[in-house]
Amino acid sequence: MNFPPPSETTGIPLNDQGWDDWLRPFADNPRSNGDRPLVASRNLPPEVESPGIARNVTKATLVRWSLGEFYDDAAVVVSELVTNAIRYGLRPGVGYPLRLVLVRYERQLVCMVTDPADAAPTMREPDWITETGRGLHIIEAMSRAWGWTPLLQGGKAVWASFSII
Fold first, then answer.
1. How far apart (Å, rounded) are the C-alpha atoms in residues 87 and 154?
2. Which residue segments constitute the domains of the chain, with CATH numbers given?
3. pLDDT at 92
4. For the chain, which has fewer Cβ within 10 Å, the N-terminal or C-terminal residue?
5. How far apart are CA 163 and CA 122, in angstroms?
């Protein structure tokens, strides 16, 4: 199977591609504004306060998008995504921030967090004595689907989606 070079798949020259390439087609989309997904994003510090910041941003965004009824589930999932990014996605000396991105499509809400690590998230057996190992299980149980994608400049985005029909 032949794949076109990345500059042909995104329409962006290779030296201009970054972590947010997947957002660029939204801005360049010829469809009317009413058909475009809504996008909100926020850089997060690599600190223990970040899950709370992410929950606050999620709540304000979902209320603004008239999706407040999805906040409880989205807040738990966003907290787990951010906690996992802090715990497993940070590398010493990398000045790359964590980023929360919320995308509202017509029929689904996608919550994602980017981090500088290239390693895929792996579901593991929870440790029933300590409080670790349950994050991806919780995300899987509360969302319609979840996954991850590598970013062109390194790092990854871990996402979870919800049906909002």
1. 18
2. 38-163 (3.30.565.10)
3. 67
4. N
5. 24
Spatial distance between the Cα atoms of 101 and 86, rounded to a whole number of angstroms: 16
Model pLDDT for residues 79-130, shown as the tens digit of each residue: 999 999 999 888 766 666 799 999 999 999 999 999 999 999 988 887 777 7
- Whether the per-residue pLDDT at 133 is higher than 50: the answer is yes
Please give the Cα distance from 20 to 153 (Å, whole number): 10
- CB-CB neighbours of 128 under 10 Å: 8
Quote the crossing angle between the two packed helices 71-88 and 135-142, to the nearest 10°. Answer: 150
Q: Is 160 helix (H, G, I), strand (E, B) or coil?
A: strand
Place of tokens 């349950």: 134
Q: Alpha-carbon distance 108 to 67, whole Å?
A: 11
Kindly give, in sequence order, each residue whose CB lies less than 8 Å from that of residue 155, ignoring residues fewer than 6 positions away: 19, 89, 96, 114, 115, 116, 117, 118
Handedness of CA 92, 16, 20, 11 (dihedral sign): negative
- Residue 127, judged by CB atoms within 10 A of its CB (0-12, 13-18, 19+), counts as exposed
CA proximity to 136, closest of 151, 128, 152, 147: 147
